[in-house]
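Render this sequence as a predicted structure.
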Amino acid sequence: MVNDPGSSKSNRPAAPAGPKEAGSGSPTVFIDWGPSLPEAHGRPRILALVRDPRSFFTCWEGGDTIRARDLSDGSIQEHGVGRIGSWYFEGASEHEYEVELVSSGRTVAVSNRIRLPRSEPAVAVDPEWTPTPGQEELLRKFLGSLEPFVHEVEVPGSSKSWRRRVAGMPVSRPSRTS
């Protein structure tokens, strides 16, 4: 393959000119410059990676269908795909998954098993651990995004100076009178 940026056989830029060695007219060789990476490896393979508590990612080569199997409840998600690609699957927290790569109706590769993490913080906490103010604020924000929390705020200009808010939304009845 010609390493010419104008060549129709390559979209690869020309090698950068390196610093010249002392006393020589030729540039030094860059170790990270080498042959082009192959588009495919020529054998069926599939990989599954956890993304978050509700989804996971898979990439593959060499099949026409991918089948995600929930090992916790037995459900299956199946999608027709191209020979090389990637896909994001929806999942359930604390469930185990395995993805099969299928070609012409038969399984040609099986991914690693993955387990999606829990979606809320652990309830068992070391009693000697106390969060810093910054950590405490992050925990409050995280918990507030999962389930409503209640706090009281002062509302300027209202007849009742204190109002109850649930997950940041005002509740009609006041929690205290002034």
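Summary. The chain has a mean pLDDT of 75. The helical segments are 133-146.
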